Amino acid sequence: MTTMGTRGRRWSLLGAVVVLAAGSTLLIGAAGGAFRGRPVATTAACSAPALSGGVVDVSLIDMGGNGSMMMRGGQSGWRSWQPGMMRVAASTGVVAGRTVSLRVSNVGVITHELVVLPLPAGQSVGVRQVGSDGTVDETGSAGEVSASCAPGAGDGLRPGSTGWATLTLPAGRYELLCNLPGHYTAGMYTELDIT
Ligand SMILES: [Cu+2]
To answer: Does position 125 have pLDDT exceeding 60, yes or no?
Structure first.
């Protein structure tokens, strides 16, 4: 939570931090080229700049890569993920005020993302219909964090990296979820309410 007293100072630091974040992205891009062809277990750690509004820290968690421990009945790919093997953990389930910043860290070993979908009245998290491709319908998405060491949408939040987004959300209930194939059914969802 940001107090009025620290807000001004945080904003004054924002410019410098953004420059640093941009530099980190360039370094990671260079590292990706150097290590192309090798499995990338982690990427360089990075941190988000100062963020406005109510800040929610989100961790994306998995119990390991697509290896033998994740296999089910000899199946491979997303169908091998079992419920409970992945998780979205948020630092709070309720934010007061419509400006919400999501600071999302991938602490797992495979790529994830975070999508914000409004929850229909009376609907619980984790019950959306999953298509044959292992994903849910993102129609009506209120935002996404899926870039490594950068804000907003990208090609996925790589292991060890952080992404972020500041959203203006109408009051209501939302579901934060990872919509990579099979990750929703593996347990990657949680509720965030805006009051
Ligand atoms: Cu995921």
So the answer is: yes
Output the CA 112–ligand 1 centroid distance in Å. Answer: 4
How far, in Å, from the CA of 188 to the mean position of ligand 1?
6
Output the CA 155–ligand 1 centroid distance in Å: 12
Q: Render the chain in DSSP notation, one character per residue.
A: ---HHHHHHHHHHHHHHHHHHHHHHHHHHHHHHHTTTS--------------SEEEEEEEEESS-SSGGG-BTTB-GGGG--TTSEEEEES-SEESSSEEEEEEEE-SSS-B-EEEEEPPTTPPTT-----TTS----TT--EEE--TTSBS--S-B-TT-EEEEEEE--SEEEEEE--STTTTTTT-EEEEEE-
Which pTM value belongs to this model? 0.74
Distance from the CA of 33 to the center of ligand 1, in angstroms?
24
